[in-house]
């Protein structure tokens, strides 16, 4: 939103950068899921797509509720908080100690 306040060209360039990086990364999660869940590949990718598109549908509605209370700052802050919590959760799950050996890092393979 900051780019829109300055110029339309800035907004278009920033959206192009976001779109390019999103295009590079959108194929990674389904590929990882297909390799991890060989027998349940269709279910895993189906659940992934359901959650992904549920977020795409819910985010604008949640954003429209938050915007009147704090504008763009609240929207970006809420998004940053959610991303931070997601990263923290993933880190805790990835490096969770194995039962019986608290010093060991769990092996996920």
UniProtKB/TrEMBL annotation:
<dbReference type="GO" id="GO:0005886">
    <property type="term" value="C:plasma membrane"/>
</dbReference>
<keyword id="KW-0812">Transmembrane</keyword>
<feature type="domain" description="Major facilitator superfamily (MFS) profile">
    <location>
        <begin position="1"/>
        <end position="109"/>
    </location>
</feature>
<dbReference type="InterPro" id="IPR036259">
    <property type="entry name" value="MFS_trans_sf"/>
</dbReference>
<dbReference type="InterPro" id="IPR020846">
    <property type="entry name" value="MFS_dom"/>
</dbReference>
<feature type="transmembrane region" description="Helical">
    <location>
        <begin position="6"/>
        <end position="29"/>
    </location>
</feature>
<keyword id="KW-0813">Transport</keyword>
<keyword id="KW-1133">Transmembrane helix</keyword>
<keyword id="KW-0472">Membrane</keyword>
<dbReference type="GO" id="GO:0022857">
    <property type="term" value="F:transmembrane transporter activity"/>
</dbReference>
<feature type="transmembrane region" description="Helical">
    <location>
        <begin position="73"/>
        <end position="90"/>
    </location>
</feature>
<protein>
    <submittedName>
        <fullName>Major facilitator family transporter</fullName>
    </submittedName>
</protein>
<feature type="transmembrane region" description="Helical">
    <location>
        <begin position="50"/>
        <end position="67"/>
    </location>
</feature>
């Amino acid at each position: 939103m900051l780019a829109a306040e300055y110029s339309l060209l800035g907004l278009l360039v920033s959206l192009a950068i976001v779109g390019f990086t999103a295009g590079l990364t959108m194929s990674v999660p389904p590929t990882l899921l297909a390799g991890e869940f060989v027998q349940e590949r269709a279910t895993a990718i189906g659940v992934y797509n359901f959650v992904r598109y549920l977020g795409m549908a819910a985010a604008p509605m949640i954003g429209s509720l938050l915007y009147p209370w704090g504008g763009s700052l609240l929207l970006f802050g809420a998004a940053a908080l959610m991303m931070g919590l997601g990263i923290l959760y993933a880190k805790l799950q990835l490096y969770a100690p194995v039962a019986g050996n608290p010093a060991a890092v769990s092996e996920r393979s």
